[in-house]
Design goal:
This is STAS/SEC14 domain-containing protein. The protein is α/β, with parallel strands linked by helices. Helices cover about 40% and strands about 20% of the residues.
Amino acid sequence: MNIYNSGFLNLEYDPSTDILSVNFPPVSDILMPEISSSFGVIVEHVRNYDIKKLLFDAKDTQVDVDEEEFSPVIAQFARSLSSTRVQKIARVVSSSHYREHVVRKVFKDKELPILFQSFTELDSAIAWLKL
């Protein structure tokens, strides 16, 4: 069921698997405040629906961001998620090796109580979340 759609961010929730799918459209030009705001919307819906599993599909996202700007935003997002009941996050990777490196670095932090795994295929990511 669709629980949020802004034209930029789409959230689909499947109550039978407790998976929230987060999809960003294939845009190439976005500002850091829009990314930060979208992360806030995700955290809000995770709390409101008491979601435990997140699926990020970033394979079509073409945004190139500066590490000095992106790293603190993604780190804050991870800290916000760690204050929810999220247990697992699966990410279908984008073509940006740089962005994926930053995301993996933040979510592999030993302090975060969330399991994180990157995938190249959507089916593999969903299968892992269902385990």
